[in-house]
Amino acid sequence: LAKTTQPISMDSYEGQEVNITCSHNNIATNDYITWYQQFPSQGPRFIIQGYKTKVTNEVASLFIPADRKSSTLSLPRVSLSDTAVYYCLVGDKGTYKYIFGTGTRLKVLA
Amino acid sequence: DAGVIQSPRHEVTEMGQEVTLRCKPISGHDYLFWYRQTMMRGLELLIYFNNNVPIDDSGMPEDRFSAKMPNASFSTLKIQPSEPRDSAVYFCASSDRENTEAFFGQGTRLTVV
After folding, report:
1. pLDDT beyond 80 at B108
2. Is the Cβ pair B101, A98 closer than 8 Å?
3. Which of A67, B35, B63, B81 has its Cβ near the most Cβ atoms within 10 Å?
4. Which residues contact B97 (CB under 8 A, 6 or more apart)?
5. What is the mean pLDDT of residues B45-61?
6. Is A30 or B113 the better-scoring residue by pLDDT?
7. In whole numbers, what is the pLDDT of chain B averaged over residues?
8. If you count residue pairs, one on A and one on B, with CB atoms under 8 Å apart, how many are there?
9. Residue B21 contacts residue B11 (beta carbons within 8 Å)
10. CA–CA distance from A1 to each of A12, A70, A99, B7, B98 (Å)?
């Protein structure tokens, strides 16, 4: 399974766009990129998943360059409630094996 | 659906005792995962099942840990005997083959004293 590297922590202010980048240099052809969010005392929650280019849903966008060796989770106009840990996962969709890295602790300030 | 249900939410036990954690996955999901989360090691995948069959238990730390899934709606994670270093939050998650999004339960916070 490809290893992922993310910043340990980030600070932002309410209303700003936040971009969290994840490196996965050894990503395999069959691997997908998935992001999860975890609040204190809760289990992780799925945010978005993609394979290449750009994916957008109601809460975030995921940008994946052509070489797929990195990906960027973009959170538009964050609020205090977006303070959480964000995990980038890379794995074969067919194996259904979800390996979490260390995550990025995002703190949104007023 | 009520989501993935775990019980108990909190468990405090003495070293050497047997501990059983329980999980009810979302109805219709055929994959079930057990994770352990600690400050030091983060979120670790312990074992996962497909159609009640264990597929990969390479994350189970020791023989003291065992997991079963007797039917599609119930799974247990047992630690016997428990040790203080087993103290952690244990999460259960489930997903289906059509959608790789994994849904997590609220977790069981285990404290072994």
Report:
1. yes
2. no
3. B35
4. A96, B30, B31
5. 93
6. B113
7. 94
8. 49
9. yes
10. 31, 15, 8, 31, 21
Which among A41, A87, A97 has CB closest to B56?
A97
Give A40's contacts (C-beta < 8 A, 6+ positions apart): none
Question: Does B91 touch chain A if contact means CB atoms closer than 8 Å?
Answer: yes
* Residues ≥6 apart with Cβ < 8 Å to A106: A9, A10, A11, A12, A18, A20, A75, A78, A82, A83, A84, A85, A86
Q: Is B42 on the interface with A (CB under 8 A)?
A: yes
User: Residue B85 contacts by C-beta under 8 Å, 6 or more apart in sequence?
Assistant: B112
| Max CA distance (Å), chain A | 41
- Answer yes or no: do A34 and B100 touch at CB < 8 A: yes
For residue A41, what are the CA distances in angstroms to A74, B9, B10, B17?
Answer: 24, 10, 11, 25
A96 → closest Cβ in B42, B95, B106: B95
| Mean pLDDT (whole number) for B29-48 | 92
Give the model confidence (pLDDT) of A54-102 as tens digits: 999 999 999 999 999 999 999 999 999 999 999 999 887 666 677 788 8
Please state which of the ranges A44-53, B39-48, B96-105 shows the lowest mean pLDDT.
B96-105
Report pLDDT digits (tens) over B56-90: 999 998 899 999 999 999 999 999 999 999 999 99
- Rounded to 5°, the CA angle A51-A13-A73 comes to 5
Residue from B6, B101, B108 whose CB has the most chain A CBs within 10 Å, to mutate: B101
Strand A53-56 to B19-24 pairing: unpaired
